[in-house]
Design a protein that fits this description.
By secondary structure, this protein is α+β, with helices and mostly antiparallel strands. The protein has helices at residues 29-36, 62-67; strands spanning 2-3, 10-11, 15-19, 22-26, 52-54, 57-59. It has two helices and six strands. The chain starts with a strand and ends in a 10-residue tail after the last helix.
Length: 77
């Protein structure tokens, strides 16, 4: 069994995510998102979809990007 790096649950169905040369171990997608998903630089929510990026900042949507002065970013609908 392996231990989740977020909640420390010792669980027989953990899984690994390999990213940027590191290996991460989680027991749920919730824990994986908590550790791996970027955070919106405006509203602070976890970005679980595509999100937007500008000048090194991450945003969950175009509204949040505009709130931070990035009017050129648009959502794709």
């Amino acid at each position: 069994m392996a231990v989740c790096e977020v909640c420390n649950n010792d669980y027989d169905m953990t899984f690994e995510i390999h990213a940027a040369g590191a290996v991460h171990v989680f027991d749920s997608f919730e824990c994986a998102a908590q550790r791996m998903a970027p955070v919106c630089d405006n509203c602070r929510c976890r970005i679980l979809g595509h999100g937007l990026q500008s000048d090194g900042q991450f945003f969950c949507c175009a509204h949040c990007a505009r709130e931070q002065g990035h009017a050129q970013l648009v959502d794709h609908v």
